[in-house]
Specification:
This protein is mainly alpha-helical. 71% of the residues lie in helices and 0% in strands.
Length: 368
């Protein structure tokens, strides 16, 4: 069947399906997944005995979704409409589509090629953000930032794919042009799925224009915390946690409410992050003897003699280890986190929290 012969009704349906996916996913999250997220939050807080006025809807209120969902919806609507219906009129003199070739004669081929590249870059980025949104929806983890990053991803993917097509075209001989032209859709699709990798390739080509100076302390990287993968790192960065120091000072209740991670896992990460901030380069030595977090250093009410033996075993300076231990034991916030972890690890507390939540559900059902 010829694409031109497809009825306008089917084309409008395709546009509605692609663009409508964005608001429908947000509606599904609030109507289906939000109640379970609120229940999980209450259970974790009850288990640890934390009294807080924070609610899940403080971070996931419907009003916070209007702008990001509308932003990405409009981008998808415009992109899929151009892909389905095409562009009317002469596009050969469109500065955006012909780039540095603007003003030359016979730019129609370049403009059409650019439209093809943009379309495939959009398809690649949409497939990526769609599967990401579905995965986050199933995990009860669909904050407004997901929609902002999705819209920006589509724009970034389209831009780097278009720039790369100009770059490759300018460096290709006429004999290889047809081969390159056939490869551009695949390159554009990959740019949509991996825009940052394509951008890094362009940066490496012109790195003399990019500063290589870095002020980041590698000892405070989130990768120095056991259990944090690239997915966990990207998810924490969405809420402003870029390094171990940020994680060490983050609010536990905020992390439980705004991320999909279990409270037990978050407590372990925070405990590790705090020890990373104290020990830095000595962190590997402590892990070698089983000290992974501040909680491990607190257990057993370690005496000065025990700390000296620990220092001898790790090769650390004894006074430094004593200072770290003293600061940890004198920190009331760390003591509270240690108590929370003890309660979270208790099967009895888990049973009590489950029974209390079941009673609340029963009251709501009877009242309703």
């Amino acid at each position: 069947m010829d694409w031109i012969s497809i009825s306008p009704l089917i084309r409008f349906a395709l546009v509605a399906i692609v663009a409508g996916f964005i608001p429908i996913s947000a509606i599904s999250f609030f109507s289906i997944m939000m109640p379970q997220k609120e229940k999980d939050f209450k259970k974790s807080i009850t288990e640890m005995g934390i009294s807080t006025s924070r609610k899940v809807r403080d971070s996931y209120s419907p009003g916070k979704y209007i702008l990001p969902v509308g932003f990405t919806f409009l981008i998808c609507l415009v992109a899929i409409s151009v892909f389905i219906f095409g562009v009317q009129g002469d596009i050969s003199e469109n500065f955006f589509l012909v780039g540095a070739f603007f003003g030359d004669e016979n730019n129609a081929a370049i403009a059409n090629q650019s439209l093809s590249v943009l379309s495939y870059a959009f398809l690649g980025s949409f497939v990526y953000i769609a599967q990401n949104i579905i995965r986050r929806l199933i995990a009860n983890d669909l904050p407004p930032s997901v929609y902002y990053s999705s819209g920006i991803r589509i724009i970034l993917a389209s831009a780097v794919a278009l720039v790369l097509s100009f770059l490759l075209g300018s460096e290709t001989s006429s004999a290889d042009f047809l081969s390159l032209k056939g490869s551009l859709p695949a390159i554009a699709l990959l740019a949509g799925i991996f825009p940052q990798r394509i951008l890094n390739y362009i940066i490496r080509r012109y790195q003399e224009f990019v500063s290589n100076d870095s002020v980041t302390d590698k000892s405070l990287s989130l990768y120095n915390i056991e259990g944090i993968s690239i997915y966990h790192k990207e998810r924490l960065e969405e809420i402003g946690i870029d390094n171990a120091q940020n994680l060490a000072t983050a609010s536990l209740t905020q992390l439980i409410a705004e991320t999909p991670f279990d409270a037990r896992q978050l407590l372990d990460w925070i405990g590790q992050a705090k020890l990373v901030c104290y020990a830095k380069e000595d962190m590997g030595r402590l892990r070698a003897v089983g000290i992974r977090s501040i909680f491990d250093l607190m257990k057993g009410n370690k005496s000065r003699e025990a700390l000296r033996e620990l220092a001898d075993a790790t090769g650390m300076n004894t006074p430094i280890l004593e200072v770290i231990h003293g600061q940890i034991m004198d920190d009331s916030g760390i003591q509270a986190l240690f108590n929370f972890q003890e309660k979270k690890d208790s099967p009895e507390r888990d049973y009590i929290a489950t029974m209390e939540l079941n009673k609340e559900d029963a009251k709501i059902t009877v009242g309703g």
